[in-house]
Amino acid sequence: xxxxxxxxxxxxxxxxxxxxxxxxxxxxxxxxxxxxxxxxxxxxxxxxxxxxxxxxxxxxxxxxxxxxxxxxxxxxxxxxxxxxxxxxxxxxxxxxxxxxxxxxxxxxxxxxxxxxxxxxxxxxxxxxxxxxxxxxxxxxxxxxxxxxxxxxxxxxxxxxxxxxxxxxxxxxxxxxxxxxxxxxxxxxxxxxxxxxxxxxxxxxxxxxxxxxxxxxxxxxxxxxxxxxxxxxxxxxxxxxxxxxxxxxxxxxxxxxxxxxxxxxxxxxxxxxxxxxxxxxxxxxxxxxxxxxxxxxxxxxxxxxxxxxxxxxxxxxxxxxxxxxxxxxxxxxxxxxxxxxxxxxxxxxxxxxxxxxxxxxxxxxxxxxxxxxxxxxxxxxxxxxxxxxxxxxxxxxxxxxxxxxxxxxxxxxxxxxxxxxxxxxxxxxxxxxxxxxxxxxxxxxxxxxxxxxxxxxxxxxxxxxxxxxxxxxxxxxxxxxxxxxxxxxxxxxxxxxxxxxxxxxxxxxxxxxxxxxxxxxxxxxxxxxxxxxxxxxxxxxxxxxxxxxxxxxxxxxxxxxxxxxxxxxxxxxxxxxxxxxxxxxxxxxxxxxxxxxxxxxxxxxxxxxxxxxxxxxxxxxxxxx
Length: 624
Prior knowledge:
Blueprint: H1 19-39, E1 51-56, H2 59-64, E2 75-80, H3 86-91, H4 99-124, H5 170-174, H6 178-186, H7 192-210, E3 213-216, H8 218-233, E4 245-249, H9 276-283, E5 287-292, E6 302-303, E7 306-307, E8 309-310, E9 313-317, H10 323-330, E10 337-341, H11 347-353, E11 356-359, E12 379-384, H12 387-397, E13 424-427, H13 433-441, E14 445-448, H14 458-473, H15 475-479, H16 492-499, H17 504-524, E15 529-532, H18 537-546, E16 550-559, E17 571-579, H19 585-596
Parallel strand pairs: 4-5, 4-10, 13-14, 13-15
Antiparallel strand pairs: 1-2, 3-5, 6-7, 8-9, 10-12, 11-12, 11-16, 15-17, 16-17
Helix pairs in contact: 1-4, 7-8, 10-11, 12-19, 14-16, 14-17, 14-18
Keywords: Signal
Organism: Solanum pinnatisectum (tansyleaf nightshade)
GO molecular function: glutaminyl-tRNA synthase (glutamine-hydrolyzing) activity
């Protein structure tokens, strides 16, 4: 789930650990890192004193970059007299240490740190992906001191579509909303088996063109659809997702199917795990039709099978690691999909592909069975036809996951019952003014707004947090040199190598700076919500560090650059973000619903079959 840029950010207070333990543990990574740098460096120092050197157990292979899973760069202790390498300390901004102290650190690493590090690595880092043994340091995004979990969850009053009839064409059916499809199912105008067949056909036809589908779960889909039809025949209705097909980003585990994480390293991986979000959707009666593309290890839109495309402009890529969910929802290959975000992987592809999406409050949706980048940042959220559908999906998947300590029962009131005329909503300078004017016409008090804070390292804090936590989850992968086969060498490989040079001290300082940011944002958030650009990198970083929700809303279209003809139907989509404080997803959704109730930007269909005169469709790959 991630889109990145060079940046800085910070963190919050986590869980209680004895102070003495903290003092001891903070020394370890910094010292060991310095020590490792000393050993694997050609730096020259004038200092001539000797010290114990842990040389690589296979220096020839190390030099040639050929270390693999059976020889993952483990160092062995051999006595050698080598000069102290001061560059390692410089990389850690620790040049204040004199040479005697450097030697003392080296000895401490030898006697104390490395044995502990190796023991811990053996205990928790033998597998990649962060699926097991989560950190006990837990980020809570709630702004209220008291717990919100015990607030009663009332049943939502979903709107009822009027006089829904089954369309004559399958394409028209494919672009219906969840509630509209549900009405067809309840009225016996279509079966879940028929509906599933429509979307499977579209996935097979357009998935290869868009490079947006990893695995079609046809056997499972028909099994779940048949069960949904049988329950309806027995008069048992599970709710608005009953019998509705959908897709999952391929970092979400489903038994008996590959969960590739988009990566060459893991493309044959089958996990015997039912992700929590999959369990929730299955219990709601939804039908899984496909595992959709994630960028490799949830970074951007490049994966082992290609690069996912934007249905609104087939020559343009979708951006963001939730590339498949955005592209497939936009093109009508699924009614909705579940994606994820660590730093932009919902907001960016939703904006590029022109779909409505929700990045919910951090902790709103459990993440058990989902590949982890950063435990204090990762979120799951829906890509949908409209904001009403986002409410439907969030209501089905939210709640406390017993195996995800960061998850909780967020306060979620009925968005359909909110009186928006009682809300004060800010708008930033980069807000789409059409949204401002529409909400104002509906009685919302709209005021100019600026989210104020003095922390100037926001983007860097995010990168420190994300990269260090990601490396902890993919330590074995990097040590085995599997990063050499990564699909885009300028992405994770570089970032995670750099993360090796971030000490525990500096990671925790970043979290303390994050705490200051959260406090300042909370103090300046003196409106019920605000409107602003959904893809501005600074706002993406702030939103993910603080953990507040945003709804991405399509607001129009403009011409693409370098049009092949004046008649092309390809377009660049325009979107905006509606932001709310943590635990106020219902407020952002209520405002988005109000806007979409009088606009139709979200109802437009991308030109994947007809790009317009003099604009030929690129030759399609073979169907799945």
